[in-house]
Every structure is written in C-alpha cells, then in structure tokens.
Amino acid sequence: MKDRRTTALIYASLLGGAFVFGGHVAMYAFSGIITLATLVFLLESIATLKWIAYHFNKLFDIMIFALGIYAKFHFSVTLAMAIMFAGLGYTLLYGPYLRETYNKQ
Prior knowledge:
The chain has 105 residues and is mostly helical. The chain has one domain. It contains five helices and no strands. The chain has helices spanning 2-21, 23-45, 47-55, 57-74, 77-104. Helix 1 (2-21) runs antiparallel to helix 2 (23-45), helix 1 (2-21) packs antiparallel against helix 5 and helix 2 packs across helix 3. The chain is globular, with a radius of gyration of 14 Å. It starts with a helix and ends with a helix.
C-alpha cells in the first residue's frame, strides 16, 4: 500500500510539473491521462482483457513503450507523448494495483 502511494505521488508530481511547465506539455499530459483512463476502463470492464493484462503485465508495459516509440516516428509528437504519459501511469499506478488485486484472490 505504501509503495502505491509513493508511485502515485511520483506520477502526480510528473503531471503537476507538466501542467506548470507549459501549454504543449500540459496537452501531452492531459491526453495521456485520458488515454490511461480509457485503457483502465476497458480493462476493468472486460474480464478477459483484465486476465491478459495481469498475466502478461510486463509485456504490456513493453508494448505500450514500443507503441510510443512507433508513434513518435510515424505519427505526431502529441500522440507519442500521450502514449508515453499513459504508459507511465500504467506502469506506476495500474500495473501494481492489478498485481495486488490478483494476488489477494
């Protein structure tokens, strides 16, 4: 529980810094938050996807990171940074929550 609070504080400080830093970075962070929320809602609503995300958690992290790199070279910087912020949120917040939830069962 304490580790989740620490990682949540780290993620919140990154997002807070992004919103203070400037308009473009704030737009990237906001898009990343929306992308992360969409991913979490999707995983929470479909049990099969949640099972896949739990059992292949580290692979999921790598796939989000690889998608961010791919988006950087083939799409816009806004999309790439949004995916990177969403990936950070998944790695720092939702991934540990998912592992903790399934370990209790």
